[in-house]
């Protein structure tokens, strides 16, 4: 069990959190503190290189930065747990809590089976134990190879807000004509990266927007490499090409062997430390990607992880980019039922959840305002509440308004709007769930039925509702045309 117990914080309710990138983030703890309803911080020790130990000293610093106001009398001779305990006794709390680490990185050496993985696994175990001592009891990682996420541009919504966007032909043009992993276009078809039609669309995109515009080429490359570890330090195309080459010829089966080796080593340590380990979905959930295999793009991939004790960081936006996951409530229920069969409760199955809407035509997508997609989000929330989930969610990527600020996807105002909407949806879903029981009882009584059949009737009602919800709201399809793809972006 953790040595530190969080004090806020009705654990019997769903809680809203926000991603924070540390003291260098344009969005401050004060900004998040003033966002009504948000009680949890999702952050990481970004200054510690991947594969190194998160020490007690550094974890304590971050806990204090999040959970306490600055204190002029803090003793300079204390650090780590002793300093945190001093703040616990003498400090003034912000009302926020850091209990979810995103991400304690699953390193490339772990994913590719490098000999260095043994040291990285050892360091990972120590970091988990240190986090557990401070009550950071949810830890998120991912098994995406090389790139943690991929977008191709920043574009404007009709209201003028800026949002992140993925255009498949732009990504293919980057891969084929800038990254140049293969000597010929046929190589991309042979390794399964793109179909013949997609290669033709990439060539059209290149000729239309990029071939005579080196500044656009640089902007596209900068946008895509922004999702790479080390990108802030200057991740070049040569670095990118070298990183991808480490996975050349790797099969899904081999990748899963490496994943299982890692999870079987660290999950027991996490459990003993009171930490729930979970994995983010591939973003976007396409495979192969950059010629590399991907394994966490739907329910089948998550079942494999659950088999090895790793929970689900459910990110609905990442999954819904793939046509096969469009009926996301069915995907959620399938994963939940599988985890329950293995004896896991809902918080163990879904330690942390990301909720963001996307507009998609099946291969391209852009992120939208939470409020403009409340119908889709409502059925996801209803499903989670119906399953009994109570944990920490965050309103994931949100458009940036003129009066907001923060890095792309992490505008504090946009995420604040999203948090308010989602908290309201969760409250309403809880009310609906409560009244269902009363309605079933009243119906049985009115028909002179047997109240012993109540549980059976409730199950039937839940099943009928789930079927109705999954079909009620069609996903929005947006026609993506070249004229509004937003190739030119300003990343300043």
Structure write-up:
- With 492 residues, the protein is of the alpha/beta class.
- The protein has a single domain, classed as TIM Barrel.
- It is 46% helix and 11% strand.
- The chain has helices spanning 29-33, 56-67, 80-90, 108-112, 117-133, 168-179, 185-190, 196-210, 214-225, 237-245, 252-272, 299-307, 316-320, 328-341, 346-349, 374-387, 412-446, 454-472, and strands at 15-19, 38-43, 97-102, 138-142, 153-156, 162-166, 276-280, 311-315, 352-355, 358-360, 365-367, 392-395.
- The strands form 2 sheets. It has an 8-stranded parallel barrel, surrounded by 4 helices. Strands 5-6-11-10 form a 4-stranded antiparallel sheet.
- Helix 1 (29-33) links the parallel strand 1 (15-19) and strand 2 (38-43).
- Helix 5 packs parallel to helix 11 and helix 16 crosses helix 17 (412-446).
- The longest helix is centred in the C-terminal third of the chain and has 35 residues, at 412-446.
Output the CATH class name. Answer: Alpha Beta
How far the N terminus sits from the C terminus, by CA atoms, comes to: 44 Å
How would you name the CATH homologous superfamily? Divalent-metal-dependent TIM barrel enzymes
Q: How much of the polypeptide forms β-strand, as a percent range?
A: 5-15%
Work out the oligomeric state of the chains in this entry: single chain
Low-confidence stretches: 1-11, 476-492
- With strands numbered from the N-terminus, the spatial order across the biggest sheet is 1-2-3-4-7-8-9-12
- Overall structural class, as computed from helix and strand content, comes to alpha/beta
Helix count from the secondary structure assignment: 18
Mean pLDDT: 88
CATH topology: TIM Barrel
List the helices and strands in order.
EHEHHEHHEEEHHHHHHEHEHHHEEEHEHH
Q: Provide the CATH architecture.
A: Alpha-Beta Barrel
Roughly what percent helix?
40-55%
Q: Return Rg in Å.
A: 23 Å
């Amino acid at each position: 069990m953790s040595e530190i117990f969080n004090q806020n914080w009705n654990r019997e309710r769903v809680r809203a959190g926000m991603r924070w990138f540390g003291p260098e983030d344009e969005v401050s703890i004060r900004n998040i503190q003033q966002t009504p309803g948000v009680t949890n911080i999702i952050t990481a020790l970004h200054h510690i290189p991947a594969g190194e130990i998160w020490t007690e000293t550094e974890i304590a610093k971050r806990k204090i930065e999040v959970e306490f106001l600055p204190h002029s009398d803090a003793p300079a001779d204390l650090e780590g747990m002793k300093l945190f305990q001093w703040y616990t006794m003498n400090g003034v709390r912000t009302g926020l809590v850091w209990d979810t680490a995103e991400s304690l990185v699953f390193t490339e050496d772990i994913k590719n089976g490098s000999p260095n993985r043994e040291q990285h696994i050892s360091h990972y175990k120590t970091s988990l134990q240190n986090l557990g001592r401070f009550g950071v009891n949810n830890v998120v990682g991912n098994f995406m190879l090389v790139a943690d996420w991929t977008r191709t541009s920043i574009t404007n919504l009709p209201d003028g807000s800026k949002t992140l966007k993925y255009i498949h032909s732009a990504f293919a043009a980057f891969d084929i004509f800038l990254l140049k992993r293969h000597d010929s276009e046929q190589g991309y078809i042979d390794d399964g990266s793109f179909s013949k039609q997609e290669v033709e669309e990439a060539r059209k995109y290149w000729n239309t927007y990029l071939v005579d515009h080196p500044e656009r080429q640089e902007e596209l490359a900068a946008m895509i490499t922004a999702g790479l570890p080390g990108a802030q330090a200057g991740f070049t195309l040569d670095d990118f090409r070298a990183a991808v080459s480490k996975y050349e010829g790797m099969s899904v089966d081999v990748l899963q062997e490496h994943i299982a080796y890692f999870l079987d080593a660290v999950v027991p340590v996490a459990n003993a430390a009171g930490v729930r380990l979970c994995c983010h979905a591939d973003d976007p959930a396409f495979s192969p990607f950059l010629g590399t295999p991907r394994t966490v793009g739907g329910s089948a991939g998550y079942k494999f992880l659950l088999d090895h004790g790793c929970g689900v960081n459910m990110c609905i936006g990442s999954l819904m980019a793939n046509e096969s996951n469009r009926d996301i409530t069915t995907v959620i229920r399938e994963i939940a039922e599988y985890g329950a069969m293995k004896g896991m409760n809902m918080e163990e199955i879904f330690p942390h959840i990301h909720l963001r809407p996307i507009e998609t035509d099946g291969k391209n997508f852009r992120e939208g305002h939470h409020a403009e997609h409340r119908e889709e989000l409502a059925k996801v929330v209803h499903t989670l509440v119906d399953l009994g989930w109570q944990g920490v969610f965050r309103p994931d990527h949100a458009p940036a308004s003129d009066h907001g600020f923060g890095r792309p996807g992490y505008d504090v105002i946009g995420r604040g709007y999203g948090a308010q909407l989602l908290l309201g949806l969760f409250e309403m879903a809880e009310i609906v769930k409560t009244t269902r029981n009363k309605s079933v009882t009243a119906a049985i009584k009115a028909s002179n039925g047997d109240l012993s059949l109540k549980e059976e009737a409730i199950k039937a009602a839940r099943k009928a509702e789930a079927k109705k919800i999954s079909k009620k709201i069609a996903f929005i399809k947006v026609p993506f045309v070249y004229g509004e793809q937003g190739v030119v972006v300003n990343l300043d």
